[in-house]
Amino acid sequence: MVDDLMAATASPDTPSATVGISIKHLYKIFGPNPAQHLAAVQQGMSKQELRDVHGHVLGLRDINIDMPGGGIQVVMGLSGSGKSTLIRHINRLIEPTSGGVWAGDQNVMAMRHGELLRFRRERTAMVFQKFALFPHLTVQENTEYGLQVQHVKHKVRREAAARWIERVGLKGYEDSYPNQLSGGMQQRVGLARALANDAPILLMDEAFSALDPMIRSDMQTVLLDLQQELGKTIVFITHDLEEALRLGDRIAILRDGEVIQQGTGQQIVLKPADDYIISFTKDVNRGRVIRCRTLMTPGTTVEGPTVDASLVIEEVARRLSAEGKEAANVANSRGKLLGSISMGDIISGMVPPKVEEVT
Predict the structure, then answer these.
(1) Which of 42, 119, 251, 306 has a Cα at 20 to 30 A from 90?
(2) Does residue 52 fall inside a structural domain?
(3) Beta carbons of 26 and 240 less than 8 angstroms apart
(4) Do 240 and 333 belong together in one domain?
(5) Final residue of a domain: which of 281, 296, 315?
(6) Residue 14 maps to which CATH number?
(7) Is 143 among the domain residues?
(8) Residues 6+ apart with CB under 8 A from 215
(9) Chain-centre distance for alpha carbon 219
(10) Is residue 341 predicted with pLDDT exceeding 90?
(11) Quick one: 86 and 223 in the same domain?
């Protein structure tokens, strides 16, 4: 109860302790006898053969992802790639056929029923695509729900919920019901409910996919603003690369239950692993992803402005054009000069690679 009260009374501006997530050699086979076919899948049996010959479905194959604490890990892929199956292994809503999941130093797969229940209630929170709000409860009551399940006192949970409702921009709607709200407002309630628990891990399964583009962009901004203050470990599922690049500190791209490529947005855009990744990245605005430090020429200086190494090249190009300059010096956050970047470098960086260049 002490922990519950601390969670309920935590300020929206107080970061939770960071908890990294580690997924090791995770396999999931759906069917009546998954263990019987595990060895064959580990030795390379195809997804099609497993389905057509043995009547089982391969959900995940040998997933290995380390998600640093306090960052946003995006898992993306097309429908059927296994991304939603993967996120549901983190809080063991789905049991693996083989492999392990660790949250910090906790082995999620070794948890007994009571320990797993506490882990789900206190250490993780979920935000769903379809909002998953209770239609008969008000905004206030929906936001309080997780704390009510933890048996937090009425006054304490009301105060905690009210703070988060205000933080996500819904002050004044406390007594409204979900059917009286827009889709974007309903998703804000879902986010407030998840954050009210003050869980260090936030699981977001296609959380913004049902929203209109403008509302979706607005919710992305809300999430990034909150994350800057709170530093939670967020696992965000999406099928949209633009969303993945905007939100993700790291991105893992799945296809047919396997990780095809993982890394930072820059790494994926600049060095796509194969044609499948190129098909995702070919229409991306690279100027909004690639940063100065990636394209600069180290150890050189020019006559021109000085820009931060973390600045995206689109912003640098805008500044150079405004000042009538052809190049800029690049410095780190402490002002130390690292090199220089020219308008030619920026233009070259914005051109995506051809398939033959990758292969």
Answers:
(1) 42
(2) no
(3) no
(4) no
(5) 281
(6) 3.40.50.300
(7) yes
(8) 182, 183, 184
(9) 13
(10) yes
(11) yes
First-to-final CA distance of the chain:
57
The domain total for the chain is: 2
- Length of the chain (residues): 359
Question: Is position 230 within any domain?
Answer: yes
CB 227 within 8 Å of CB 219: no
Question: Which one-letter amino acid corresponds to residue 312?
Answer: V
Verify that 96 and 13 share a domain, yes or no: yes
Cβ(57)–Cβ(51) under 8 Å? yes
User: Looking at the structure, do residues 101 and 178 belong to the same domain, yes or no?
Assistant: yes
Q: Domain residues for 89?
A: 2-19+66-281
351 class by beta-carbon count within 10 Å (0-12 exposed, 13-18 middle, 19+ buried): exposed
Note the pLDDT of residue 128.
82
Burial of residue 95 (number of CB atoms within 10 Å: 0-12, 13-18, 19+): exposed
Give the pTM.
Answer: 0.83
Q: Quickly count: other Cβ atoms within 10 Å of residue 7's Cβ.
A: 22
Q: Decide if 132 contacts 205 (C-beta within 8 A).
A: no
Question: Is a pLDDT exceeding 50 seen at residue 4?
Answer: no
Beta bridge partners of residue 254, listed in sequence order: 259
Sheet of 233-238, strand order: 124-128, 201-205, 233-238, 72-76, 250-255, 258-263
More confident residue, 291 or 26: 26
Whether the per-residue pLDDT at 59 is higher than 70: the answer is yes
Strands (E), the chain: 21-30, 57-67, 72-76, 98-103, 106-107, 124-128, 201-205, 233-238, 250-255, 258-263, 297-298, 306-308, 327-331, 337-342
237-258 tens-digit pLDDT: 999 888 998 899 999 999 999 9
Q: Provide the residue type at 101 as one letter.
A: V
CA distance 246 to 11: 26
Which residue, 259, 281, 303, sits at the end of a domain? 281
Same-domain check for residues 223 and 342: no
| φ, ψ for residue 318, nearest 5 deg | -65, -40
Kindly indicate the confidence band of residue 69, based on its pLDDT and cuts at 50, 70 and 90.
very high
User: Looking up tokens 């009538």, which residue turns up?
Assistant: 324
Instruction: Answer yes or no: is 56 within a domain.
Output: no
pLDDT confidence of 176, banded at 50, 70, 90?
very high
Write down the number of H helices and E strands in the chain.
Answer: 16, 14
